[in-house]
Amino acid sequence: MTYIYLALAILLEIIGTSLLKASQGFSKLALGIAALLTLCACFLIFSQVLKGINLGVAYAIWSGVGIVVTTILGIYLWKESTNLMTLFGIALILVGVVIVNLYGSGH
Q1: DSSP letter at 102?
Q2: Which protein family is named in the record (predicted)?
Q3: For residue 20, what are the domain limits?
């Protein structure tokens, strides 16, 4: 169940970040408020995740997956540019998440 909560926290973080971008610096107030509420829900759920998963492992998964998916959404939804070094950096993040999961504390 803990990993389901983690997945939900990741999803809410991605939605919240996307809403934050869509709010255009809070010039679209409703989207900005929706972003804040979504991110608050994300942190509340993530706090529950930390009851069952070590902080380092949980944060590595949460932030790593969030970074990768948010970057992909930025490219496709917001037409943000990317380059080979950006993609290489994302690959390194993914490798780091895998290493933390395989060999991190608690394993």
Answers
A1: H
A2: Belongs to the drug/metabolite transporter (DMT) superfamily. Small multidrug resistance (SMR) (TC 2.A.7.1) family.
A3: 2-103
